[in-house]
Amino acid sequence: MTGLAPEAWPVGAAVTVGLLGLAVGSFLNVVILRLPEGRSLWRPASACPGCGTALAWHDNVPVLSFLALRGRCRTCGMAISWQYPLVEIVTAAVFLLAWLELGPTVDFVVAAVFLAALVAITGIDLRHRIIPDVISLPGILAGLVASLATQRVFWLDSVLGILVGGGVFLAIVIGYGLVTGTEGMGLGDAKLGAMLGAFLGWKALLFALFVSILLGGTVASALLATGGVGRKDPIPFGPFLAAGGLAALFWGEKVVEWYLSGFGR
Ligand SMILES: [Zn+2]
Question: I want to staple 252 with a disulfide (CB 3.0 to 4.6 A). Which of 22, 176, 221, 248 is the partner?
Fold first, then answer.
């Protein structure tokens, strides 16, 4: 039997995880496109939105088909959104990051599920301005079950994370509504906050919130300054929460411990 030499196994494993990420990203594209519209994720097969031609398997290979077709439908020539290869590449990248950090463990599987959910939520919030309950609510449960099963996060930290993550945004939604009479953040953000808390535990969640507010504030200021958005345009917060969740998954515990130890004194 021919096969990879033992010293090449880590590379082979990483390549496999990368390919898995591309394939999952390809599915997440379908989720982002169809889930908010209540369409089936399984049927019909992917088709060109321009001419309706069903895609052959060789026109549906992550990233490669986009490059081979130079970003256009083979039949009608309509431009294919660059969001498709982007979602695939981002998913592969975060899966690889999780693999390098966690290796072949149950923790990696949990992280992959968490990260896939964050990619889908980011795409859906950017595209449709909602954070779907069908991802965030089961996500809260999945995070809690993962903590009970793997104990990477102590289960009570997970429960507190749900309460803090949900509570902070609930308070913002209610407070903002009382002051302005309008809706700033939605309840979708509160449910996503609770999901982050379930997966991360309350300590890493605080880091996630810190990162997301910092990122969101920076990007919103830049967009306002450059005229990219108007003062009244709502900027979806889900993508920033997702980015904070990702940062906290990989670096949250370390940063919080370093902070609690008095900056490593
Ligand atoms: Zn077409």
Answer: 248
Looking at the structure, tell me whether residues 110 and 238 fall in a common domain: yes
Same domain, 98 and 109: no
Residues 39 and 138 in one domain: no
Q: Do 68 and 38 reside in the same domain of the chain?
A: yes
Ligand 1 geometric centre to CA of 112 (Å)? 33
pLDDT one-digit tens code per residue, 22-41: 999 999 999 999 999 999 99
pTM equals 0.91
Q: Which pLDDT tens digit goes with each residue over 75-92?
A: 999 999 999 999 999 999
C-alpha 218 to ligand 1 mean position (Å) = 38
* Through-space distance between the first and last CA atoms of the chain, rounded to whole angstroms: 55
CA of 93 to the centre of ligand 1 (A): 29
**Cα of 72 to ligand 1 centre, how many Å?**
8
End-of-domain residue from the set 103, 131, 153? 103
Same domain membership, residue 17 and residue 36: yes
| 76 Cα to the center of ligand 1, angstroms | 4
Query: In Å, how far are 57, 78, 90, 91, 263 from 46, measured between CA atoms?
Result: 10, 15, 20, 19, 51
Cα(132) to centroid(ligand 1), Å:
29
**Helix 106-128 / helix 238-260 crossing angle, nearest 10 deg:** 140
220 contacts: CB under 8 Å, gap ≥ 6: 229, 235
Residue with tokens 């889900």: 238
How far away, in angstroms, is 128 Cα from ligand 1 center?
23
The tens digit of pLDDT for each residue in 7-16 reads: 778 899 999 9
Domains in the chain, number = 2
